[in-house]
Design goal:
With about 280 residues, the chain is α/β, with parallel strands linked by helices. It has helices at about 35-45, 70-85, 90-100, 130-140, 165-170, 185-195, 230-235, and strands spanning about 50, 55-60, 120-125, 125-130, 150-160, 175-180, 200-205, 220-225, 225, 240-250, 255-265, 265-275, 280. The radius of gyration is 20 Å and the shape is globular. The structure holds S-adenosyl-L-homocysteine. The site of S-adenosyl-L-homocysteine has 25 residues, from strand 4, helix 5 and strand 6.
Length: about 280
């Protein structure tokens, strides 16, 4: 008798329709034609397809890196489950976290840690926050004003990094303006986001300490790097009724999350739990 297949093997292999869906996440040059299996294997962590003489055939080889499993959706579902168990409760945030393939934003060598609750290096001395912190900040952000459809309006993100949080934000907002001061990471984010085709994400290269006045006012501002104070430009560019969430250095020298609400009665600042973000720096490089 055949023994039943056990997880993590998933017998219902999803067949990505490489030809039907132009957004298939394989990096192709426009004139590259049908990708070779080797190219697919290099670029895609999942079951792959290749063109055979008589049409499309599926390569049964599993190429997912250890730890991600055959179906990364299942691994993400587990991550979301854990986030919920940790007390994160905003269904929209959890759904968005379940949608974005975090493993596409980290180096190949770190792919097997992509869905663990850990921060990961993204190059140039910077890190991607752990999923729990990303979800927490987005939940706080959504505690501010939402539009009629339950989304945040135009949002400014300071510190694009690898582009992961911008991708999650794209599902929760009407527009995302994300600014990065390191050219290398700005380019990396552009590359990471290219195949995802998120038309509401706008990547900017520049010093986010000055915000991005052209997109203001913002319904919300989120920073992924912490300074000694909240730059005044951010408060100025925040819409009335808008909310800002950022790490900031506290009086004791430690770093904590701060929520700033801009109200007709004035700016209200709430200090929350301790966090560990990379420093907010001025200028570009
Ligand atoms: N949200 C990111 C996390 C990136 S880490 C992600 O999902 O990957 C924080 C980023 O903030 C770093 O890339 C760092 O270069 C950037 N940063 C720091 N100071 C900045 C500034 N003044 N303007 C823009 N980006 C800044």
């Amino acid at each position: 008798m055949k023994s039943p297949l056990k997880p993590p093997f998933n017998p219902t292999v999803k067949v990505p329709s490489a030809l039907a869906r132009p957004a298939f996440p394989v990096r192709l040059k426009p004139d590259a034609g049908v990708p070779s299996a080797t190219k697919l294997i290099a670029d895609y962590a999942g079951p792959v397809m290749a063109k055979s003489q008589n049409g499309i055939k599926q390569i049964t080889q599993t190429i997912a890196p250890d730890g991600v499993g055959l179906d990364s959706q299942a691994v993400r579902a587990r991550m979301v489950h854990k986030l919920a168990a940790q007390g994160l409760s905003d269904a929209q945030v959890l759904a968005a976290m379940g949608l974005v393939e975090r493993h596409r934003f980290v180096d190949t060598a770190l792919v097997n840690q992509a869905y663990e609750d850990t921060s990961l290096p993204i190059g140039l001395g910077q890190t991607i926050s752990k999923p729990n912190v990303v979800a927490r900040m987005l939940e706080l952000l959504r505690g501010g004003a939402l539009d009629a459809s339950g989304k945040l309006g135009r949002v400014l993100e300071i510190g694009t990094g690898c582009g992961y949080q911008a991708a999650v934000l794209s599902h929760l907002t009407t527009e995302v303006y994300s600014i990065e001061r390191l050219r290398g990471l700005h380019d990396k984010a552009r590359e990471n986001l290219r195949t995802l085709r998120l038309p509401n994400v706008h990547l900017l290269f520049g010093d986010g300490m000055m915000g991005y006045a052209k997109g203001a006012p913002y319904a919300a501002i989120i920073a992924a790097a912490g300074g000694q104070a909240i730059p005044t430009a951010w408060i100025e560019q925040l819409a009335m009724g808008g909310r800002l969430v950022a790490p900031m250095q506290t009086a004791s020298g430690a770093q904590a999350l701060v929520v700033v609400d801009k109200t007709p009665q004035g700016v209200r600042q709430t200090l929350l739990e301790a966090v560990h973000f990379v420093p907010l720096k001025s200028g570009t490089s």
